[in-house]
């Protein structure tokens, strides 16, 4: 099926006040995946307070349970009209979206080449531990200033309830922030060592070799979030580490797969 004949998938994302609009770690995973597979798509922007109602309207599944047992709805979600079905396929969660895209469009480049799903899941868990976890609260603390007013109010209220402190105190300037960045740098150093271990020390850009897989887009999405919402505080540091390899990595992924539709 040519790209002109292919149905247009809708990606549900959360807008911002930023020029690029797109900012979210998890939505970037799905956007990179869609672009990698060359699938025509468009973005439907949903403010935070409207996510639950919107997802219920389109038949999206909740992604988790709240502490009180109620359903919690999140983005990303895709709605794929397909070509031979009577109702769109609606898929929630970036991991499940990636699995669905490979199953529904197996002739396109694969996010999970044969036999790699479990390996990538384990690798992604390690990525999150080494790279994302140290700076998660720091990046969250930057978000209210970048969101539209209704979403900023909702985001701040819910995150403060989850963490149990004011959002400005999640990772304030000083020793706590310095420790977070140091831990991220140490994590990336371990990751670099792992990536280069079996290529004679040569810099390996993607975990599987010449072409990216979904796990690479998870790393790129972490960097994208840091760059968009914390360029001065976080990304300016990251891009200078380890000979600039992480900036080269993100620039490569952005150039090929970073277009926002």
From TrEMBL:
Occurrences of domain Glutathione S-transferase UstS-like C-terminal (ranges): 119-254
Ranges of residues in domain GST N-terminal: 23-103
UniProt xrefs under InterPro entries: Glutathione-S-Trfase_C_sf, Glutathione_S-Trfase_N, GST_UstS-like_C, Thioredoxin-like_sf
Pfam families in the cross-refs: GST_C_7, GST_N_2
Name listed for the protein in its UniProt record: Uncharacterized protein
